[in-house]
Structure formats: structure tokens, C-alpha cells
Design brief:
17% helix; UDP N-Acetylglucosamine Acyltransferase, domain 1; 9-stranded parallel β-sheet; 8 helices; alpha/beta; 41 strands; 2 domains; 31% strand; Spore Coat Polysaccharide Biosynthesis Protein SpsA, Chain A; 16-stranded parallel β-sheet
Length: 463
Amino acid sequence: MKRYGAVILAAGKGTRMKSNCCKVLHPVAGRPMLAYVLDAVRTLSLDRIGVVIGHQAEDVMRCFDDGDLNFVKQDPQLGTGHAVKQCYELFQGFDGHVLIMCGDTPLVKPETLDGFIRYHDENSSLLSVLTTNLENPFGYGRILRDCAGNVAKIVEEKDACDPEKAIKEINTGIYIVECSLLFRLLDRLKAENAQKEYYLTDVVSWANREGVTVHGCRTEDSCVVMGVNSRSDVAAANGVVWNRIRWELMSEGTTLLDPSSFYGDFGITVGPDTVIYPNVMITGNSSIGRDCVIEPGCFINDSRIGDRVRVLLGSKLDDVEISEDVSIGPMAHLRPKAKIGKNARIGNFVEVKNTTVGDRTKAAHLTYLGDSQIGDDVNIGCGTITCNYDGKKKHRTIIENRCFVGSDVQFVAPVEIGSGSVIGAGSTITKDVPPNSLAVSRSKQKTFPLRLGQGLAPKNEDR
């Protein structure tokens, strides 16, 4: 059985992206595009994997160094042929075949690569090229075949004449080459082209000169081998991956009322019988339980949501944990490190940050809870805020079980409210409150009758 290794080209900046971020780190559906390529390659059980890096090399290594990759730097960057040649030491003495592909093909599927390897094996090939047909092949290298149907040459767009530009069969940038042949051909490359670079495509011409048959394996699914070279390509790739995620979720029992308006990142999980309304986005490492309802306009990032949770219209959740049977929103904002207990209710225009909210606790509307610990069975009245910041440090508010907090209360942290206590409406609480106590902080009400033409006549009334 043949041995296989892989070289993944990931050194380029991606000039057409017009970005400070190197191309392979640009996200597609929430993860760098190179991650998809690595996932596909890793399914092939290869002997070794080399990743050629250059622009922002340290960032790429930091993002992907999982122990099974061999990073090779290309400096200076003199073309794709020069890039592969940097892997000579990695493959020195390797008696197998090398799969070569680019790191900017995030839509590639493992079955496409597996089928290409099987094609290479079945034809006892020394050099195979994966091709596809495009209605608009602009920008891609064209495949020139000989009378026997084998690949005679690959011509890059900038070097192609008009008849060659009319060819619709293009090079995907994915090759398999017997290892010793590969590096022998790389030694013959010359930078005699418009870009003054060493093209990997030229190994095809040199192989033909040596009498080596170059096989062209055409895939009918041109989408999976699409290269990403511009912002519009990123948008197109996002659309493909999002659509894959949509159909996968629906096949597992999620209801998407309007699949085309749902955006879910790679890796999210959603339980069966959950209903997701239009214009919802779920990103990062998010998981949604079963029998949940996510209403329109919600944004959920890096959050864990239990079963039977309702996230109502226009709510935003970012790095939070929600237990079972909770209602959130509408228009709620849950910020990082918010933890909401079972059967709790976080209502409209409530903001929660770095706070634990206990079971069956309710904060129905117009409330801010920051840097707090709220117990079980607590009622938080409308307009309540925890004053957690003194201008230099954040301080905590602790409200223990079974407390009742009236409307328009300010807790000036640090402060602790004992269990079973009641806080009167309109109070500003600056001191700890013992358990089972009533705390009220108000100035006396004064009422003055108005008499036309006579000004104000004071009349005090204490209440």
C-alpha cells in the first residue's frame, strides 16, 4: 500500500483581500479557513503533514500547532513551486506520494480528497492533477490536455493567450506527486513568467518532457475546490458553509423557520425540537438545548443554553450559561460570565454581567445586575441597579435567597442583603441588611398646595 504525506501552502498574504490579516486566518463561518483544510487532510491518515507558512507565520503556528503538523517557513516568498521546495528536508527519504493543496480552499471535502487519492492509485500515477470546469474560469490556470486526454500543460491566467483563456477546465491547485519525482521536477523550475515566480504548475510541463504521464482527475463539484482570494470569495464560502450547517441542524431535528436567514457558525450544537425564528445568529462555541425557542433578531455567542429555554425578540447573549426552563428577553443583554438558574426570568431591557442569578429568580424589566450574586426565589423590581464601580475597582453585591426588591432601588456595592429581606421601592442601599429585615432609604415627602397668584404656600406632610 502506498504511503502518503501532504503539503499545505499557507504562506501568502492574500493581496486581493486588502487586509492586515493573512489570508488563511480569515474566518469562514467562525473559524480560520485553513482549519477546514486541515480537518479534511487529517481524515486521510497521512504519514506526515507539512504546512508552508510565511506571512504572519507566528500567528498561524500559534493558531494551529496541535502537534501533528510540521511548519516550514518560506522566506522570501517566490511562488508556489518555491514554497513546496522548502519541504525538501521534511520529505527527505520519504518513499511515498505527496498530496499538495492550498490553505485557502475551505470548502474542500474529505471525500473529494479520498476520491482523488483512489484515482491516483487506480491509474498507478506518478503525477495527478485535480481539475474542474467553471463557466467563468477567470483568474485560474487552464488545463491543456493532449490527444490522449492526459494533462500536457497548465497555463496561468496572466500567461495565457486568448484561445487558452477560453478553456473552461481549470487547475484546482491540488496535486499528488511521487515524492522523488516531485523534488526532481522542482529543481528544474524557472521564474520565466509574468510574475517572475517559480510556479508549481510548471512541474506538469517538465514531467511531460521526461515522458511521465500526467493524469487529470476532473471533479464535477466545482464548489468544493473553490479558492478564496477576495472578500467576495469569503462571503461566498460563508454562504456555502452556513448552508451546510443549516441542513445538518435540520436533519438532526432543529426547526429553522427560514433557513436562509439563519446564520450558525461551524461547531455550534442545537438540540432536537428547538425552533429558531428568522434573522438569528449563533456563533462561537455555543450550544442550545432541546425544545428551546429562539425568537427573531437574537444574537448568541459562546453561550451554553439548557433545555426548554425561550430567548425572546432582539436579545443578545455573549459567553453566558443558561439553565433549564428559563425565559430571556425580549431585548435583554446578557454579558460575559452571567449564569442564570433554573426557571428564572430575565425580562425586557435587563442587562446582566458577571452575575449568578439563582433558581426561580425574576428580574422582569429595566434592570442592571453587574458583579453580583443573586440567590434563589428573589424578585428584582423594575429599575433596580447594582452600583458596582467606584471609579477604580469593581465591587460585588450579594442578595441572598427569598429577598423582595422593590422598584427603583440602587445597591451601592460592596453590600450584602440577608435572606428573606425586603427592600422598599426607591431606596438607595449603602449598608448591609440583616436577614429577614425591611430596609427603606427615603427622604420625607413634602407637599405644597398651589394657589394661583399667591405663590407657594408650604404645607409639610410626613409620610
